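Ticket reopened. Same input as before:
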Amino acid sequence: MIQHGDCSPKLSVDLPELLTRVENDRELLRELLRIVKEELPWLLQSLQEAADRGDNKGVEVTAHTIKGMLANVSFARAAASAACLERLGQQCVTQGLPEELARLKQEVSVALAEFEACCREIVR
Amino acid sequence: MKILIADDSAISRRLVQKTLDREGYEVLVVENGSSAAECLSSDEGPRLALLDWVMPGLDGLSVCRQIRSRPNHPYVYMILLTSKESKEDMVMGFEAGADDYLTKPCDPKELKARLRAGQRILQLQDKLTQEARQDPLTRLPNRTFFLDQLARCVTRAKRRPDYIFAVLFLDIDGFKIVNDSFGHFAGDQIIMQIAERLVTSVRRDDLVSCSADVTGTVRQSGEDTLARMGGDEFTILLDDIRDASDGIRVAERIQQKLVSPFLVGGQEVSITASIGIAISAAGYSTAEDILRDADTAMYRAKALGRSRYEICDPAMHASAVGRLKLETDLRRAMDRDEFRVHYQPIVSLRGGRIIGFEALLRWQRPGFGLVMPGEFVPVAEETGQILIIGLWVLREACRQMRAWNQQFPSDPAFTVAVNISAKQFAQPDLVTEVERILREACLDPHCLKLELTESVTMREVERAARIFGELKRLGVCLSMDDFGTGYSSLSQLRRFPLDILKIDRSFVSEMEGSTESYAIVQTILTLGRSLGMEMVAEGVESANQVNLLKSLGCEYAQGYYFSKPVDQEGMVEVLLKSSGSAYRLPQQSVLHQNVIRE
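Engineering reply: fixed in the latest deploy. New output:
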């Protein structure tokens, strides 16, 4: 059983880290935001569907993809939550899965808002 | 430099692509493993790759395995870029064939540094591959590279019946003399000059240079490959030709290019080459087969007078195949107990008594009957098997002589003459082996006569004299075989403690009709006597020859007049009938009448 405490909470968006990763390329930053906004909703949808039908492998693989995407844009807490879901899927643990999924969606929502604000700030 | 990014995540692809664009890489991007494998397998595909692990369809690990499983393909440096972070995953990645492992999210500086490290490894590997496939002296492709290219042509010929290629095998005539006369440095200079002229003799526009192709890039059809196989041997692969005439044309062009003398250390040196040509039309299953046939044709060109070319025809091909089978059969012959020793009596010309025998090797080859040594000993010499066979003959002959001397006691006891080959004579443990065999057979060393030819003994006079001394100390008798046919230096002959001189059959057979041969036999007999040696005439076939030899004072003879070589049972019958002696010698009245008439 994975405890929530396993997922180390961090910042919603680690902006300094992200800026280093994009080598201060603001244009790229905006492009990444566009991709995240485009792709994240249907990935979260896929994850939800896999969880609903008890497809542990599906949960593991989709959570892994989401984790990679979120880590790339430094959504630290959301990425940690996706990692938790990946482990739950890997270990075929269903207990706590809906709660962790809800938590991921919440973290993504917060981070996305923060990211958008950051992008606006940076552009200004 | 080209680099492949394979990732199903758009964020990852975009981040990495941007980083690599900034670094000046030529970036190719795919979204799944199958596309990645296809891209990396193409002839001009990238040699650096960043592969995501988890991808739809073929994953990154499978791509690594697939790429690593291809033989003779340029090396691809693969980095797994993944969100899988555990040590176990990393180990799996490396074991699948990845060269490096990076976890997402990846720091751009680290990524760039890792890629630079990968490039350094690729460069080093290319350098090593090039060195392994290039002749350091001429910078031409070497044997390894040539055989690779040839193998591709053989494969192509199997697929396309209309596709023809040719191999030219070129050997410089008498190059050893050049090396011995001018030294090896000058020899190398000449080899380099020859290489330059050869380059201009093949289709220049298409000539495959080793440096351009060592990474394993697949050749385009119509390219020729010139390689140095080593020493003074070069090979040329003529790709996609019309027929044998194309090969002949190149061979003639090469001969022409070599006509003008080479300049070494201010001196002009004339060089010629013998060339063997093999055409793929004969149908070959391996690169080695066609190369062997071109080599055989080259040797035939040498044998027919050098400075010429010869084409390997079906008969030569069949002969080469036959030779291969002979080699294989010969390798098994000892284990299968197929060798035999036949004995030819050596007879005293004073009374016809048998004084001993010459042991002669035969091979009872299944499907071929009794094979004479001339047909297989040269092959055994080349493969080194002659050492094992030679010792076996020696052991067998000594054992038999001990048995006959017990069964048919005579005074003095029978002797046995055994031939020693050049390879055997070169063995450092020859004397020890002879001593051991004599001891094991319980044979009196005086009953053993070792026969050597002039070419064997005159090659290294100092060493030969030392070995002869050691053999003499064992009590063994030494005999010079085929005397008169080689290049004996009479002064050197004096230095050897030889007991017997055997007059070659060619002089004996002609002594009746040729005053020159008669004179030669007479001279050899005078020489041998004056050096205190026993004289044995070989190849005696007629009564007249017996009488002539007797009149010249020759003491012993062997040949068909007395008996052809027979197996052990046959010789026992002879010994039983004659009570150990007595061939009837002819009457003196027929004495050398032909010679006298002249």
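The CA atoms of residues 22 and 124 of chain A lie 18 Å apart. The radius of gyration of chain A is 15 Å. Please confirm and we'll close it.
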